[in-house]
Specification:
This protein has 387 residues and is α/β, with parallel strands linked by helices. It is 34% helix and 15% strand. It contains 13 helices and 13 strands.
């Protein structure tokens, strides 16, 4: 089964070798922007098709339509604003001199040319409306609301051309939608479920993965952790990948599971983020998408099952596989949910990442009943979380 990209066509905005050389030779004559890392991640994902049908950064009408209707101008469901708002005085001075129709060079922090922006519009997004509509709050304690407050005052809309891919620490673990689609075809996987994560696996994660692999309508599983910029206290990308490699190697059937990295800045937007992350996995060629409890949530900002309900309101052409909260039941002697276990909460073993992080921060033994020993060994390394 070939899954069409969101909108029907997988976008490619990466220049050929010849065009790359030409644009490199022209860079000195172009206005230069040095955006935040978040924006550089988005530039690359737009170019390789992960964000299809987007070909660049949103204009005002598209941005406001996503905030108010959760749809693009053509009525296609889309839940996350993708805007370019380079911060800082140097960028502001460059932006002031730009007009629609101009081109600008997008550079990384080493002044390497990453992409060319074809400017179509400049506008000033309202940060309060942006935060409230996307994240359901304007509290700066929410990590992404704090990010919005740190953006530049002006958004730049227009298509981009990728000149050079980012030098990512994930290396060969990073895959594009073309890569995963080719892999699925090579292995004969017609029905692939995507598993979104941003933490090392514990037994509740593994349980959902195994339930999915038991389904007759699933040939294989793509474990696809977000390993770009996460929030303070989240695990380092290399730790997440190393832990999942251990799980796949020792506890999964390797011919039915593939691990790939996905470098973007994590949006902790609860249901809106769940919908966005599912749309992205559709572009990677997956036919279904695992949705657990409180996916992409942070703190107490979202109804834990709002991430399930949003797929009823916005069907996107990928099947959501909804799962309730899972725990280890002492009485059952196995993983369970409300659908399979009637024992009281006192029999449940806490399988939260909060418990694991607390043990790490306090130097206490890691809970062996919810962590595979190979994963626990990786988490015992020093400084496994981000500062």
């Amino acid at each position: 089964m070939t899954v069409p990209a969101h909108g029907g066509r997988l976008i490619h905005r990466e220049l050929s070798a010849g065009d790359r050389a030409r644009r490199e030779s022209e860079v000195d004559a172009l206005p230069k922007l040095r955006p935040a890392l978040d924006d550089l991640y988005d530039v690359q994902q737009i170019a390789v098709g992960s964000y299809s049908p987007l070909e660049g950064f949103m204009d005002r009408a598209t941005f406001e339509g996503v905030l108010t209707r959760t749809r693009l101008p053509n009525n296609l469901p889309w839940s996350m604003p993708i805007v370019l708002t380079p911060p800082g005085p140097a960028n502001a001075a460059t932006i002031a001199g730009l007009s629609p129709g101009d081109e600008a060079a997008i550079l990384d922090d080493q002044d390497r040319l990453i992409a060319i922006l074809h400017l179509e519009e400049k506008f000033s997004p309202d940060r309060t409306t942006w935060a409230q509509a996307t994240y359901g709050t304007t509290e700066v304690q929410h990590p992404n609301v704090a990010d919005i407050q740190a953006t530049g005052d002006v958004a730049l809309a227009g298509k981009i051309d990728l000149v050079r891919r980012l030098e990512l620490p994930t290396g060969s673990d990073e895959m594009t939608p073309d890569d995963t689609r080719a892999l699925f075809a090579e292995r004969g996987w017609k029905r692939v479920a995507a598993y979104q994560c941003r933490n090392p696996p514990h037994t509740a994660h593994e349980y959902l993965q195994r339930l999915t692999l038991e389904r007759e309508d699933v040939d294989a599983l793509l474990i696809h952790p977000v390993v770009g910029r996460l929030k303070k206290g989240d695990y380092r990308p290399d730790i997440i990948l190393e832990a999942y490699r251990a799980l796949v190697q020792h506890y999964h059937v390797p011919s039915r599971v593939h691990l790939a990295a996905f470098s973007i800045t994590m949006r902790y937007a609860g249901p809106r983020a769940a919908l966005f992350l599912a749309i992205v996995r559709k572009n990677f060629g997956c036919t279904s998408y695992i949705v657990g409890r409180d996916q992409a949530g942070v703190g107490k900002y979202y109804d834990p099952y709002a991430c399930h309900k949003i797929f009823d309101e916005f069907p996107i052409g990928i099947e959501p596989l909804r799962y309730d909260e899972a725990w280890l039941c002492r009485k059952c002697g196995s993983m369970a949910t409300m659908k399979t276990c009637a024992h009281p909460a006192t029999e449940r073993v806490d399988t939260s990442q909060t418990r694991i992080r607390k043990a790490l921060s306090e130097g206490q033994p890691l809970p062996s009943e919810i962590l595979r020993p190979e994963v626990a060994e990786i988490l015992r390394q020093p400084n496994v979380t981000q500062g």
